[in-house]
Design a protein that fits this description.
Elements lengths: L3 E2 L8 E2 L7 H15 L7 H4 L2 H13 L4 H5 L8 E4 L16 E4 L1 H16 L1
Antiparallel strand pairs: 1-2, 3-4
Length: 122
Amino acid sequence: MAGILCVAPACRIVVRDGTSRCEKHTKVARKVKVELRSFSGVANSKIYNSSRWRRLSKKKRTVTPFCEDCEDLGVTTLADVVDHIVEINDDKTLAYTWSNLKSLCHGCHNTKTATEKRKRNT
């Protein structure tokens, strides 16, 4: 099997196992990904980084795969995000409550988040 050079900058190791990175840089990439996922500076990161939340979010998007706000406007858009109707900062007990979840596309989620942020700042 012919090899390719590892895609990490300045790495000269030839990779022959069908991947694009050498063993060293594969480990580095995984570590960076884990560190980004568990960034503690984000409010409510314990909830969003939990396996419980990831399972619930995935289930919600499976049951309700389209953006609920777009559907209200007669538009069909795939949902990318599960939003808390009542924000976690307002009531942490609702963080995993199904009836407090809404499937949204990124655009609708960003709009809702910006609106909520403006309300808090006034």
